[in-house]
């Protein structure tokens, strides 16, 4: 169903981001599909590619019908389908889990901000299909022994909070154990941040990135993410929680990049934005003051590094200007 209603600013932004992200994701998923060996992983990637292509087609169609210029998305020239395999099948599953989780959040916001019936229907379908894809990914994680959830003992009764000790954590007040709110945020953010760390390490080893003088930038990004992972790991260990794996051994030593410099920088910026957003949610939901301070610090570091990444995009002419409230001559 199409609509003659003029696009709102929110719909414009949602479709703009959808077009850019899905032109990238559709090609990257095809590249991954060409290199995986497991049939079930290949089927998952085929479904992911289908979802992305629908996003490309819908966003392009709406913009074209509205006589709105398309941003410069990604094409086959940005991904070498015959390039070397960089990520193992297991790592691809873990990467896709993070990316689908991020997409579900963005599509929920886009649906809530949409006015036109056709755009609402589109983002509703994206959410339904994204949920199906996430379930496929989780089944693969269970099947391959890649799912490592945290478990805690069940309380015998439900108790009321009796003092501000709930919020305390200091050498004079005494640290309480982590509660489920804090465990949830630490686990979720570890899973997200570890993917960024592995991505940055893979990018830094590409000759294309070294020639473009970006290797130091991505090595710095990997160090920042590893520092965040160490912080999360230590907080979990303080309450007797097990350690999570970091997956560096699932990277190959490929030095030839299957991705263009533009795609690598854009993908990094998108993932950094999502990671900073997760940290922000954690700040507003955790109850221990020291954990909240941890997330505030790592969010600030992530946003600064994201700004540096965007500046590299601007310097190289890779970043399209979002439509503005006022058109200037």
What CATH architecture of the largest domain do you see?
Up-down Bundle
Largest sheet: none
CATH superfamily of the largest domain: Ferritin, core subunit, four-helix bundle
| CATH third-level topology of the largest domain | Ferritin
Radius of gyration: 21 Å
The tally of helices reads: 9
- Head-to-tail CA distance between termini: 36 Å
Helix content: 55-70%
Q: Could you list the spans in which at least 5 consecutive residues all have pLDDT below 50?
A: 170-174
Number of strands: 0
Overall, the morphology is: globular
Give helix and strand order, one letter per element, not per position.
Answer: HHHHHHHHH
Specify the structural class.
mainly alpha
| Average of per-residue pLDDT values | 93
Key attributes of the depicted protein:
Ferritin; globular; about 325 residues; 2 domains; about 0% strand; mainly alpha
């Amino acid at each position: 169903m199409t609509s003659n209603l003029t696009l709102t600013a929110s719909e414009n932004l949602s479709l703009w981001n959808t077009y850019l992200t899905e032109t990238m994701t559709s090609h990257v998923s095809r590249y991954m599909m060409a290199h995986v060996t497991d049939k079930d992983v290949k089927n998952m990637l085929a479904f992911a590619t289908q979802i992305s292509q629908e996003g490309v087609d819908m966003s392009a169609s709406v913009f074209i019908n509205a006589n709105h210029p398309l941003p410069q998305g990604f094409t086959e020239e940005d991904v070498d389908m015959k390039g070397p395999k960089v990520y193992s099948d297991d790592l691809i599953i873990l990467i896709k889990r993070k990316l689908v989780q991020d997409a579900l959040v963005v599509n929920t916001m886009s649906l809530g901000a949409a006015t036109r019936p056709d755009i609402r229907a589109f983002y509703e379908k994206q959410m339904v299909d994204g949920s199906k894809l996430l379930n496929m990914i989780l089944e693969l994680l269970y099947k391959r022994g890649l799912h490592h959830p945290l478990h805690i003992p069940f309380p015998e009764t439900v108790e009321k909070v009796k003092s501000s000790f709930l919020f305390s954590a200091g050498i004079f007040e005494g640290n309480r154990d982590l509660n489920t709110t804090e465990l949830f945020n630490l686990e979720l953010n570890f899973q997200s941040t570890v993917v960024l760390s592995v991505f940055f390490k893979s990018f830094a080893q590409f000759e294309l990135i070294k020639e473009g003088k970006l290797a130091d930038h991505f090595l710095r990004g990997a160090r920042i993410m590893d520092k965040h992972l160490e912080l999360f790991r230590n907080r979990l260990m303080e309450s007797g929680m097990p350690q999570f794996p970091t997956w560096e051994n699932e990277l190959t030593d490929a030095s030839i990049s299957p991705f263009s410099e533009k795609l690598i920088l854009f993908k990094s910026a998108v993932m950094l934005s999502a990671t900073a957003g997760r940290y922000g949610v954690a700040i507003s939901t955790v109850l221990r003051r020291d954990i909240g301070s941890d997330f505030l610090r790592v969010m600030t570091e992530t946003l600064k590094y994201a700004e540096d990444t965007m500046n590299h995009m601007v310097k190289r002419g890779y970043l399209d200007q979002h439509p503005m409230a006022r058109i200037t001559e």
